[in-house]
Design a protein that fits this description.
The chain has helices spanning about 5-20, 30-40, 45-55, 75-95, 100-120, 125-140, 145-155, 165-170, 170-190, 195-205, and strands at about 60, 65-70. By secondary structure, it is mostly helical. A two-stranded antiparallel sheet has the order 1-2. The radius of gyration is 18 Å and the shape is globular.
Amino acid sequence: MKKYKTLKDHVYSYITEQVLEGKLIPSQRINETAISQELSVSRTPVREALIQLSCEGVLDNVPRKGFVLKGVSEKEASELYVVIGALDGIAAQMTCNILTDKDLSRMDFYIQSMDLAIKTDNYEMYLTQQDLFHLVYIEKCDNEVLEDTISRLKSKFFTRGFSKDEASRSKEYLALINDEHREILKLFKEKDSAGLYNYMVNVHWSPTNAHHEIL
C-alpha cells in the first residue's frame, strides 16, 4: 500500500520532474514563489521540499541567491551508476517471476516507441519512453523504499533540455542502449533473475556509460 503523500511530497515530486525534464538547469535559482503558485500551495511545503533536495545533494543553498540546481561531475556520475545499477538489478530480480504477459508487452511497446523516437530525432519522447520501460518492473517491486531511492538517485542527473545537435550526436548511442533494453526484456521473458541482475550491473549501468545521459 502506497503511503499518503503530504504537500511536501507533492512539491518534491514536482521539482524532481522539472529536473528530469530539463526545465531546470545547473546553477539556475529555484523560484519558490512560482512553484507555490503553480501548485497552489503555501511556501512552507515548497521550502521543506527544497531543504530535503538540498540535503540529498540535488540542490545547493547559496547565500543571497537561494536554492540552485547542482551539476554532476564525471566521478559522481560513475558512483551513481554503480549504486543505481545494483538497485535496478535488485528490482529486476524481485519482479522477474511476477511480470505478466501484459507487462512484457508494455515493455516491448516502449522499446518500439524508443526506436521511433530515435528515427525521428525526438529526444524527449525517447527519454519518456525509457522511463516508462523501467517503471514497468520497478513499480511491481512493492517496495516503496527501493522505488523512491532509485527515483531520488536518478533525479541527480540532468539529462533533458539538451540541444538538437547534442541529441543528434547521441543517436547511435541511444540505438545501442535500446538494444540493451531488448536484452533486458529477453531476460525477463526467460525468467533469468541472476542474468538480469548481472546485466543491469555490468552492462546497462556500467560506470563506463556514466558520461552519457541517464538511461
